[in-house]
Amino acid sequence: MSALAGRLLTPEGWVAGRVLFGARIEAIEAGDMPSDAPAILPGFVDLHVPGGGGGDALEGADAVRTIARTHARHGTTALLPAPVTAPQEQLAAALTGIASVHADRRPGEARVLGAHLEGPFLNPDKLGAQPPFARMPDRVEMDRLIALAPVRVVTLAPELDGAPALIADLAAKGVRVQLGHSLASYEETVTALEAGAAGFTHLFNAMSGLDHRAPGMVAAALAHAEYASLIPDLVCVHGGAIRAAMRAIPRLFAVTDAVAAADMPDGKYPLGSHTVEKRGDLVTLPDGTLAGSALTMDRALKNLVSIGLELADAANRVATYPADFLGLTDRGRIEVGAWADLVVLGRELGIEGVFVEGESIPLYTKSR
Questions:
Q1: Enzyme catalytic residues
Q2: Residue 184: phi, psi to the nearest 5?
């Protein structure tokens, strides 16, 4: 059995003491700790990860393993690879690869919980950086895709013909439907929520905005959502908009929407059939369109703290709330019986340790 000592963030709040664990947490023991003891947080849960470390989720199992290793070193202990929109055959191959990694986690990897299908049923006029393979909702195609892997989240545009019926069908099968890449009106969005949609994909980005006379999807999210994801890189969304959304959406949670360029030097990288370019914190298509991000969850946490959130609140939004969104009661929290997914933070919120299901993940010191 292993042990870590420090200030533990539990569901009841901060506890000074030790956590004892194997693959799961066995005990939490209170005790005195110095003021500079490390903070021990639940491992981060990222529900939207197209890539990282040079790997693209559409490329199959080897790329997914690269993604899982890369993000684990930044504190993400569980994730959903999110292949971008592609022809059905390519999506099927990608899901088969994700399923194989889901079934066989290897040392050094974050746990792959399943897949997030961001499409293919998106509005072709609101693709953002998605490749041009959007199509109309098709229950037969969706059934074929979700049979290939544990698809946990599907993003679709609710204004498309057949979308409300597909939302209801997916919700009945336990798939969490998020709304995005959409030009839906407020009314169309509310209809989708009533049909069973559970959240929103990268709030503010690639969706109809907020106008006081013609409220769109953003307005519907702010008015009605319990959950929504958001990219807190402070590029895709301004810090002020993040704080405004937090006042309206109780369980707003962070995702990276990280592409292959995450944790890589500046240069060109794949995003499905597109090539994107990383320049510092920016990842764009050749025409300048933002293309996901180069964010990692440790940076997301720091960014949330930098705009005024308490560390515990920020930790909920990178760990607990996304786990809750999937209905997971044994991840995203430090309590007896939960998986030993842990992040140790030192000074300036730097990562000093990561544990995935009790395994210590090798960290690196190179700077990119």
A1: 257
A2: -65, 145
